[in-house]
TrEMBL record:
Sequence similarity: Belongs to the ATG12 family.
Keywords annotated in UniProt: Autophagy, Isopeptide bond, Membrane, Protein transport, Transport, Ubl conjugation pathway
Classification via InterPro entries: Atg12, Ubiquitin-like_domsf
Stated role: Ubiquitin-like protein involved in cytoplasm to vacuole transport (Cvt), autophagy vesicles formation, mitophagy, and nucleophagy.
Keyword Membrane: yes
SUPFAM superfamilies: Ubiquitin-like
Domain of life: Eukaryota
Listed name of the protein: Ubiquitin-like protein ATG12
Description of how the protein assembles with itself and partners: Forms a conjugate with ATG5.
Compartments where located: Preautophagosomal structure membrane
KW Protein biosynthesis (keyword) present: no
Length: 137
């Protein structure tokens, strides 16, 4: 069986659009409003006050938590949730622990809890399933 190499030629045409010249007038930008340190800290505290209700569900042979509902700060990363659950279960870093959202997928540790809640909440709760062996996806 002979293999034939074919090459296609692609012609690039110059764009008809014109770019602005440096000589053209540039609109003056509005002055940037400066914030004081106290204003930035106050704004940061306001963002951290929103909480998300998280429900943990054990799967398989994973230990069951005494309390399954927790309020977690929405601006936290999912990594914080993983560390929190490890602490509650008294798991070491070497112990296997798998977390899933709505029994479907495992989110990235750098995803924020607020984004996960916004996209995947069920009845206003973020349901996180956890187990000691890989269960889904």
């Amino acid at each position: 069986m002979d293999l034939i190499n074919t090459t296609e030629t692609v012609s690039l045409e110059a764009s008809q659009e014109t770019l602005p010249n440096a000589d053209d007038e540039i609109e003056e930008s509005k002055p940037v409003e400066r914030q004081t340190f106290e204003q930035v800290v106050a704004l940061h505290k306001e963002r951290n006050t929103s909480k998300v209700i998280v429900r943990f569900r054990a799967i398989g042979n994973a230990p069951i938590l005494k309390q399954s509902f927790y309020k977690i700060t929405a601006s936290n990363k999912f990594q914080t949730v993983i560390q929190f659950l490890r602490k509650e279960l008294k798991y070491q870093g070497s112990d296997p622990l798998f977390l899933y959202i709505n029994s479907a997928f495992s989110p990235s540790p750098d995803a924020t809890v607020a984004t996960l809640h916004k996209c995947f909440n069920t009845d206003g709760h973020l349901i996180i399933n956890y187990c000691t062996t890989a269960a889904w996806g």
